[in-house]
Amino acid sequence: MNLKESVSSLAKDLLGVALLLVFLLLFFNIEKIKSSVSLSNLPDSLVNVNTIFISIIIEAFPFILLGVFVSALIQIYVSEDTIQKFLPKNALGALIPAAILGAIFPICECAIVPVVRRLIKKGMPLHVGVVFLVGAPILNPVVVASTYYAFRSNPTVLYSRFGLAFILAIVIGAIIYFIFRKNSDQLKWSKEELMGKQVTQIVTPTTKPNRVKQTMYHAADEFFMMGKYLIAGAFIAALFQTFLDRSILQALGSNDYSSTFVMMVFAYVLSLCSEADAFVAASFANNFTTGSIIAFLVYGPMLDLKNTVMLLAFFKTKFVLVFMATVTTVVFISVMFLQLFIL
Q1: Rounded CA gap, 256 and 59, in Å?
Q2: pLDDT digits (tens, 9 = 90+) for 278-330
Q3: Which of 2, 45, 203, 329 lies at 20 to 30 Å from 105 by C-alpha?
């Protein structure tokens, strides 16, 4: 690494540390700031952006921490040979086990990106990682419990959400496999990662590394790397939530087609954590169709503003655009089918 790259890397790290310190300072001193600064002089929209931004960050940070520690544990304790050993040899046959695996980990869409990124770096096929990426944020037990409590009076939403998520995760994984099977390396690799990859192939360590220390180092690196993109995504989501005219979208939600589209837009823009989105969806139940509520609950955890920013940071742009188009199309068509023939 030359001097210019070293300075650039150091500047990014310092910026990440500064942003985290500012966030912690504001978080722990919010009451003092409120009492010393008159918010009445600020525009309501600015106060609203700040409130939504902070709420998204507070909601997402615990799950980012969970995700980066899981990612670090995978990096240190899970070898490429282990992943290859447990994955079915048949490419399409690996899709169903991946969807089932997604139901085990209590990881939301905020934390799933670093985990999937690490698994793919360890040798997991791209399409299998995609199944985990779209399935785990919905199928995990915490989301099952929150959806049950939010829709106790309407179990159709509960069953439809998880049944549809399981099937669509497999379908989306299969589509990604056929599109990218000739070029499955869709991660963005830094120079340091590529150099490290080459070194590990050539050099065999003579001393046993301290795995606990390595886990902490990797978790810290992942946290600052993911954190800055989460902050950017949360800020964009807060701007959309504040300045998007929801009354216009609600006016469009009068039939099955437009209401499904509107609720998918809401899911993308609101960028809610999947552990909490069921309670927000329940508040829309009187104004939108059951199918559109299901679309909201399925589409949001698979794709929203904040995880789009994170995906663009760590995956190639072409893959992200194809992924977004695939998820949007598949969810919309499947919900339309559900409304026409089942609900």
Answers
A1: 31
A2: 877 887 777 788 899 999 999 999 998 888 988 998 899 999 999 999 999 99
A3: 329
Taking alpha carbons only, the member of 146, 124, 20, 16 closest to residue 78 is: 124
DSSP code for 185: -
Query: What six digits make up the tokens of 53?
Result: 């931004």
Bridge partners of residue 326, in order along the sequence: none
Amino acid in position 87: L
> What residue type is assigned to position 324 of the chain?
M
Pull the structure tokens for residue 246: 């929801």
* DSSP output for 211-225: HHHHHHHHHHHHHHH
For residue 64, the SS3 value is helix
3-state DSSP assignment of residue 272: coil
Long-range contacts of 42-46 (CB under 8 A, 24+ apart): 45/242, 45/243
Q: Do 160 and 303 form a contact (C-beta atoms < 8 A)? A: no
Token pair of 341 as six digits: 């023939």
